[in-house]
């Protein structure tokens, strides 16, 4: 849609869609900074890290479930949904800081731990789900000819948030006394301002009118019935598997780097991984705009993921990688590819759904599809942890306890899942032709 010559900033697609989407997604995307401070939280409140880790799993679960159940609110009123997101995310973050402070004064208190679960997991999770959904349909309406580029730009902000916020969080933790709880309160204020500005700016184009009055909007089930149900099942399944495999490998990334002798470069590699994640979100979705069938991108993601995984499996790269430059390059290639495919899977879902089912109920359908993210958030990390804890052997590499065979065995599970996802992509999801409006 071209900018109106008379409307100025009020009809500028960058100001009314792209910038507010980035403000919202760059804020809520910091949920992926969890690994930066999770150990500090555990030490400060007197619990094992494994107990505290559930806060992140709950946050991802409630992100997906709130998106699924509140998708209709987003469909009807993006101003209400973006305000809910702003309040829930910033209040949840501030309350997390409060319960960390409480736990510091009452070490081992379950009040603190449960408070963090509720604040970071549930309240912030609702903010995450509504905040993630709110700008997506608006972007696709403003950028009708480049829907992938537009949604990729915003979702890339979600992926890049970790690279932007991690150094800031680390600086606060290192330089502010009692930094862990103060960090949450400071950032809650910063993100409230960013998200509230995004909420004020976000607006659908004037020529788009949601069905009202006598116009009866189709229900989600009526919309889904326009294609065989297996079509939607295929989209949901491949989205779920892509996230599960991504989380399974990404959750073990730092340990894998220890095995191949790169723990000293873990910070740099983590930043590069975040860049690949964000680049995959933008690049794969922008590329898909030029393809007749957007599902081709998923076929490419899964084939590349299978190839890179198979190469590291065949060479036993994680086990034998220490000191072997070629194997180190192959393992890093796998890590970067999985990050790029993980990101690309997110950015292509809303546009793939719109190609198949049209724009009428896209927020609600996208919301239900994000339930795959909720369940993957509970299974991805846990799948890898189970395999590592029940196979292989723990050994010492320098000062670190690692299980190279266990990390290598995770790949056997992910390659099987990637093959299932590719089959779903090829045989269940029919070509869309990009004819849905």
SSE map:
Elements: H1 13-28, H2 34-45, H3 49-52, H4 54-76, H5 78-105, H6 110-142, H7 147-175, H8 179-201, H9 220-224, H10 229-250, H11 253-259, H12 266-288, H13 295-315, H14 317-320, H15 325-357, H16 362-369, H17 371-390, E1 395-397, E2 400-402, H18 404-427
Antiparallel strand pairs: 1-2
**How helical, in percent, are the residues?**
over 70%
In total, the number of strands is 2
- CATH superfamily of the largest domain, called what? MFS general substrate transporter like domains
What is the top-level CATH class of the largest domain? Answer: Mainly Alpha
Number of domains: 2
Q: Could you state the order of secondary-structure elements as H and E?
A: HHHHHHHHHHHHHHHHHEEH
Please identify, by name, the CATH architecture of the largest domain.
Answer: Up-down Bundle
Integer-rounded radius of gyration:
22 Å
Determine the CATH topology of the largest domain. Answer: Growth Hormone, Chain: A
Question: Helix- and strand-based class?
Answer: mainly alpha
Counting DSSP H or I runs of 4 or more residues, the number of helices is 18
Poorly predicted segments: 1-6
**CA-to-CA gap between the ends?**
15 Å
Q: Characterize the overall form.
A: globular
Main sheet record? 2 strands, antiparallel
Report on the architecture of this protein.
The protein has 437 residues and is mostly helical. The protein has two domains: 10-204, Up-down Bundle (Growth Hormone, Chain: A), CATH 1.20.1250; 219-437, Growth Hormone, Chain: A (Up-down Bundle), CATH 1.20.1250.20. Helices cover 77% and strands 1% of the residues. Strands 1-2 form a two-stranded antiparallel ribbon. A hairpin with a 2-residue loop joins strand 1 (395-397) and strand 2 (400-402).
């Amino acid at each position: 849609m071209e900018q109106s010559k008379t409307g100025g900033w009020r009809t500028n697609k960058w100001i009314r869609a792209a910038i507010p989407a980035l403000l919202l997604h760059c804020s809520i995307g910091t949920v992926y900074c969890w690994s930066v401070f999770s150990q500090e939280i555990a030490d400060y409140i007197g619990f094992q890290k494994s107990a505290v880790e559930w806060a992140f799993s709950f946050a991802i679960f409630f992100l997906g479930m709130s998106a699924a159940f509140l998708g209709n609110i987003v469909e009807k009123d993006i101003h209400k949904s973006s305000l809910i997101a702003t309040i829930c995310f910033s209040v949840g973050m501030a309350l997390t800081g409060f319960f960390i402070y409480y736990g510091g004064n009452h070490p081992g208190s379950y009040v603190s731990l449960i408070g963090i679960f509720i604040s970071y997991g549930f309240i912030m999770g609702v903010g995450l789900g509504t905040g993630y959904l709110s700008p997506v349909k608006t972007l696709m309406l403003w950028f009708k000819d480049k829907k992938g580029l537009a949604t990729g730009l915003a979702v890339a902000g979600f992926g890049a948030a970790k690279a932007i916020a991690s150094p800031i969080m680390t600086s606060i933790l290192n330089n502010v006394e009692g930094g862990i709880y103060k960090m949450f309160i400071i950032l809650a204020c910063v993100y409230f301002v960013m998200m509230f500005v995004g909420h004020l700016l976000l607006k659908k184009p004037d020529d788009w009118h949601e069905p009202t009055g006598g116009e009866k909007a189709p229900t989600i089930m009526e919309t889904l019935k326009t294609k065989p149900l297996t079509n939607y099942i295929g989209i949901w399944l491949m989205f779920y598997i892509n996230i599960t495999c991504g989380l399974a490998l990404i959750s073990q990334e730092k340990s894998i780097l220890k095995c191949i002798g790169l723990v000293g470069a873990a910070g740099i590699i983590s930043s590069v991984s975040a860049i690949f994640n964000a680049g995959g979100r933008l690049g794969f979705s922008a590329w898909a705009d030029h393809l007749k069938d957007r599902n081709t991108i998923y076929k490419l993601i899964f084939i590349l993921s299978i190839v890179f995984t198979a190469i590291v499996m065949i060479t036993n790269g994680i086990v034998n990688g220490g000191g072997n430059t070629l194997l180190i390059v192959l393992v890093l290639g796998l890590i970067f590819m999985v990050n790029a495919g993980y990101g690309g899977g997110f950015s292509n879902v809303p546009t793939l759904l719109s190609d198949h089912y049209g724009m009428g109920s896209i927020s609600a359908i996208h919301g239900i599809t994000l339930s795959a993210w909720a369940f993957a958030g509970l299974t991805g990390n846990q799948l890898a942890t189970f395999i590592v804890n029940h196979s292989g052997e723990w050994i010492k590499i320098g000062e670190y306890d690692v299980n190279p065979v266990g990390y290598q065995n995770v790949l056997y599970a992910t390659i099987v899942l990637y093959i299932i996802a590719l089959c779903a992509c090829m045989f269940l999801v029919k070509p869309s032709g990009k004819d849905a409006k």
